[in-house]
Design brief:
The protein has twelve helices and twelve strands. It has helices spanning 8-21, 26-41, 52-61, 89-107, 123-132, 186-195, 215-219, 229-245, 276-279, 284-296, 306-318, 324-332, and strands spanning 3-6, 71-76, 79-83, 109-117, 136-141, 162-167, 173-179, 204-205, 211-212, 222-223, 267-274, 320-323. The protein starts with a strand and ends with a helix.
Length: 333
Amino acid sequence: MSTTFLNREDIEQIAIKALMSSGASEAAASALAKGVAAAEMDGIASHGLVYVPIYCEHLTCGKVNPNAQVVVNQTAPSAIVVDADSGFAHPAIDAGFDLLIKSAKKNGCAAMSVRNSYNCGVLGFHSERIAQAGMTGLGFTNAPASIMPVGGDTSVIGTNPFSVAVPDGKGGVAFVIDQSASVVAKSEIKMHAQAGKPIPEGWAYDANGNPTTDADAAMKGSMAPVGGYKGFGAGLMVEVFAAVMAGATLGKDASPFAGTAGGPPRTGQFFFAASPDVFSPDVFGDRVQSLTESIEVQAGAHLPGSGRFAKRAKHEQSGVEVSIALLEKIQAI
């Protein structure tokens, strides 16, 4: 397979051009392209350039509103409510972000909900921005249903990630936790199905709720929740914040993020930002450092997010290796 190397700016510009050619505004395309480039830089290719043709298809088929008018309301001193108007999640999150940080600094903590939204890509990308602003950030996003309750036979929640990003007290980010309610991403099973390969045991269930290694059967069934009932519980928590609290569509009622059927998914996100300067100004930095060092000193142990940080640093120097075939597919758009 022929490949080439691209830097962050190259990736952003390629994504922007394709998105705008498919009807996105410059502002929306720019916001989404930053997320695409960040995913590539962090080694999370499944949410990078490979997703751009899907984003473009969804602009043209009606799953994403290319003319979305994002509305931001501050409904209480520490509450920001954003309506994405069935547009992309990234510009909607951007629209309320500065107000979230400002409110958290003033009041000690603040929350922002986003409704009538879409796939927000790598959730940790958004939570990390909160930490970069000096706040401890917590994020939730729901997705179309793909996980059955343990013992059940009908999917109720999606892969529903949550993310925690912690500042280091020195202007940087100490670590980022970013994990979903499923053992693996659904895209992993889809790739196995397309390749005609079986999936490992423990990844998924068939349509009758039985464990399966058949990728095609898994695509018609359910993702396996990580940790069994505990993973389903974590996903249900995410559903409460990202859908119920945000006033977004429940995963069980949302249209798929893949394909052209069903119209806009209108899923949601929810973010908390808490200020260390208000809660623990005298000890926060020292406690975070002590906590992270207790992990890092252990041979073979690593902080959550350290892998993506390392790949980011490497890719900033060497660029990201990208398939030329994928680039040609995007450039054809």
